[in-house]
Amino acid sequence: MKKKGRKPLKDPHQFCIVDSEKHGEYTLKGKIWIEGSEGTFLGYGRIALLEKIKQYGSISKAAKALNMSYRQAWRLIASMNRQAKKPLVETQVGGKGGGGTRITETAEKAIEQFWKIHENFKKFLSEQIKNFEI
């Protein structure tokens, strides 16, 4: 009997890797993340989770879209919220209008700043590979 569930990605970190422009036969690669008091505070995957929460207004839908378990999504959110000066994700318990999840203004800033750093990192790698000559 086949197991049901999500299919694992071949390399779950493949999307985190930043490539430089190709220089001859070579490409410089790297990963970037922001460390906090507990280790990783923000990285590509956590930013993607915040963006999906913004898109869907739901942790479970965001996790599913990223092929991530709901439990793992909650762990990442809890970690980010503990390490941030202000919460990045806020949840609302169900009721008359139903529950929901939203990212805060602080999360919006974090997303914007992370992508700026990410783009600058990519430019840096592209410049550095030009100095590689063998």
From TrEMBL:
GO molecular function per UniProt: DNA-binding transcription factor activity
Domain called HTH lysR-type: residue spans: 47-107
Protein name: Putative transcriptional regulator, ModE family
Alphabetized SUPFAM superfamilies for the sequence: Winged helix' DNA-binding domain (SSF46785)
